[in-house]
Amino acid sequence: MSKFKNSEKFLIKHVSTYTPPPAQYGGRHTVTLIPGDGIGPELANHVHELFRFCCVPVDFEVVNVDPSIASEGDINNAIMAIRRNGVALKGNIETNHNLPPSYKSRNNLLRTTLDLFANVMHCQSLPGVRTRHKNVDIMIIRENTEGEYSSLEHENVPGVVECLKIITRTKSLRIADYAFRMAREKGRRRVTAVHKANIMKLADGLFLQCCKEVASGYPEISFDSMIVDNTTMQLVSRPQQFDVMVMPNLYGNVVSNVCAGLVGGPGLVPGANYGDDYAVFETGTRNTGKSIANRNTANPTAMLLASCLLLDHLKLHAYAGMIRRAILTIVTETRLHTADLGGQGSTSEVVQSIMNAIQSTRAHTLST
Amino acid sequence: FCSSTWLKNAIQTVTLIPGDGIGPEISSAVMKIFEAAQAPIKWEKRNVTAIQGPGGKWMIPPDAKESMDRNKIGLKGPLNTPIAAGHPSMNLLLRKTFDLYANVRPCVSIEGYKTPYTDVNLVTIRENTEGEYSGIEHVIVDGVVQSIKLITEQASQRIAEYAFEYARNNQRASVTAVHKANIMRMSDGLFLRKCREAAEKHKDVKFTEMYLDTVCLNMVQDPTQFDVLVMPNLYGDILSDLCAGLIGGLGVTPSGNIGTNGVAIFESVHGTAPDIAGKDMANPTALLLSAVMMLRHMGLHGHAKKIEAACFDTIREKKVVTKDLGGNSKCSEFTDAICQRVKDMD
C-alpha cells in the first residue's frame, strides 16, 4: 500500500469488518423500500409477500418518490430514510428526459448523495434459460458516482454544449481496490479494466493507471485491460473469456446491459450498489418496464434475487440461501417462464411456485 | 447520393489507398474482382503517409488530397500509425482533412459465416467529428481530470439529416436515435432535438428514440428489431463494434465515411495484421464489401449486387475460403474463386 500517497491511505477502508446496522425492536431489521415506477410497485409487493411467507425478520419502510413533481423533497426523504436504515431495496424511478436539466435523474441523485460508489452485477448463465452463449460468469464492477454521470453541462455559446466527464484519482483507486478485494474474496482469478484510454488519454488514462497501481498489490490476481469497443465485440462472440471487469460509469452501463442480455435479459439479473455506509439493491439493468406495468407479466426473478442479496448483506444468510435456491429451481421450469424468457407465465404464478418450493423444502427439513 | 448525374457506362476514377500490412494484398484482390466484374472503375493509387507541411503542421501528401478532392470517392485499406511518430493517427488526419462527419456501417449477417446471431440487418450511423472524442482534456488539480464531450447543434443536425437521407435512399423503414438524455440532459438532449427536427422533415421514415443501455440490452437478445441507428461519437463507436461482433467481427464488416463536399471514403476497419502480411493469408472480405458499399453509393447497383452475391456465395459454399472464415485457402485462391463466380454470372 506504500505506493499510495499518505492522504489517500485513510480513504481506502476495508469493508470486510463492516457490521450491518443494529437490528431494532426484537431482532428485526428495518429496510427502506422505494417501489419506483413501472413494474416497480408490483415487484415490491411480491418481495413483501415472499418475505412475509418466509417469516424473514425484515420490516420495510416504504418511501414513495413521485417522478412528476419538480421539487426534490421526495427523493430527499428517501435518502434520509436510507441513511436511517442503512439498507434499501429500490425500483427504478422514471426520468422524463424532456424536462430541463434542472430536473436531475432521481436515481442518480440517490447514488451520488449516498456515495454508493460500487455497482456490482454478477451475470451468470442460468440452467433452464435458453441463450445463445453458455457458461457465462462475469462479475461487473462499475464506478457509480463520477465519470460521464457527473451531470455537469453548460452551454457557453448557443448551439454548443459541453458535458464534463470527471475522473478522479481517489475514486478510481477506490473502485479498483473494491474490484480486486471482491475478486480475492470470491476466489476469482482475473480482473479486466475496460477503458478508452487511446482516445481519452488523460481521463481514462488516469483510471487505467490507478487500476494498474492497485493490481500490483494483488499478485495472485492477473490484471489486463481492454478497450471498450473491442470489449463489446468480444462479449458477443466469446463472453466466456471474461472473469471480473472493472470500469468507469458509462462503459459500465454499456457492458452490464450487454452481459445481462447475454445471460437472458433484464428480468434475471440483480444489481447491488455499495457505499462505505449504505447499500441499495435493485434490478441489475435498472429498467422501469413501463410498457409491461400492471399486467402481471414482469419477470420477478431479478428483484427477488436482489432481495436475497439484501438478506446476505444483513447477514441473514440462511433466509437468503433458502429463497435463492427456490428461485433458481423455479427458473429452470420452462412452463413458468414469463414473456421475456419466451414463455407465457405470469408473475404471480412464478412467485407462488417459489413459495411452494420453499414450503416443500421446509416440510422436508421438519420431517427429518 | 450523386448517382443520378453519372452515366452508367462512364468510367469513374476512384482514389485507392492500399494501406499498410495486408493492405496492398487485399487491395489487389479487390481490383482483380472488380476487373472480373467489368466494373467501370479506374483506380488511382495514392499513399497517405503523413508529412510535415510548412509551419510544421502534419498533413497528408498534397497529391493524395488533390486526387481525393477531384475523384470524391475513395477506398482505403488499413493504415498504421507508428508509435511516437509525433503526429496524430492517420485515420484522424484523414477525417480532419476531408471533414468526414458520418461513419456508416451496415451490418448484415453473412450466410455461411456462422455466428450465434442470424438475420442481423442494421446500419449504424455514427457522428464522427465531435462528442466524447473531441480530445479536450484538462487536469483540474492533481488527481482530478476532466474530459469534455462537445455536442453542437450544427454537427447534430448534419448527422441527423444524413441518417434520414440514407434511410430514404436505401429503402430503410426506420431510424432510431440512441442517447442517454436522462443523464446527459443538455448534450444528448440537443442531439435528440436535432434528430426530432430531421424526423419532421422526413415523415416517410419512422423515427424512434431509445436509451443506449436499452439498445445494448435488446441488441444482444434480438438484433432483428433494429434498422438504422444514429448516435453521437462514443455510443457509435461502441455500438458499431458491437454490431460488427454480431456478424462475425471486423474482418467481414464494411464501413463508409461520408464527408462534406460529396467526399466519401470507404474502408476496411480491421487492423494491418502485420503477422500475416505478405503471406497470402489475408481475408479481403471487409475491403471487398466496403468497395461494394462504394459502388452502391455511386449508383452502380448492378455491379454491386453481382460482386456481393459472388462473395457471399463463395463464403457460403465454404470450399475455397480463408483461414479466418473456417477454411484453409490462400487469399489469391479465395479471390480467384470469387472472380470465377462473377464471370459465370454474366
| Beta-strand percentage range of chain A | 15-25%
Principal-axis shape of chain B: globular
Radius of gyration of chain B: 20 Å
- Percent of residues in helices of chain A comes to 25-40%
Helical segment count of chain A? 11
Average pLDDT confidence of chain B is 91
Organism (chain A): Echeneis naucrates
Keywords (chain A): Mitochondrion, Transit peptide, Tricarboxylic acid cycle
GO molecular function, one term (chain A): magnesium ion binding
Protein name (chain A): Isocitrate dehydrogenase [NAD] subunit, mitochondrial
Characterise the protein shown here.
The complex is a heterodimer of chains A (368) and B (346). Chain A is an alpha/beta fold. Chain A contains eleven helices and twelve strands. Chain A folds into two domains: 198 residues, Isopropylmalate Dehydrogenase; 132 residues, Isopropylmalate Dehydrogenase, CATH 3.40.718. Chain A is 39% helix and 20% strand. In chain A, strand 6 and strand 7 form a beta hairpin. In chain A, helix 10 crosses helix 11. Chain B folds into two domains: 182 residues, 3-Layer(aba) Sandwich (Isopropylmalate Dehydrogenase), CATH 3.40.718; 132 residues, Isopropylmalate Dehydrogenase, CATH 3.40.718.10. In chain B, the strands form three sheets. In chain B, strands 2-1-5-14-13-6-7-12-10-11 form a ten-stranded mixed beta sheet, sandwiched between helices. Chain B has a two-stranded antiparallel sheet with strand order 3-4. In chain B, helix 4 packs parallel to helix 5. Chain B is globular. The chains are: A alpha/beta (368), B alpha/beta (346). At the A-B interface, strand 6, strand 7, helix 6, helix 7 and helix 8 of A face strand 8, strand 9, helix 5, helix 6 and helix 7 of B. Strand 7 of chain A pairs antiparallel with strand 9 of chain B, so a sheet runs across the interface. Chain B: Belongs to the isocitrate and isopropylmalate dehydrogenases family. Chain B: It is found in: Mitochondrion. Chain B: Its cofactor is Mg(2+); Mn(2+).
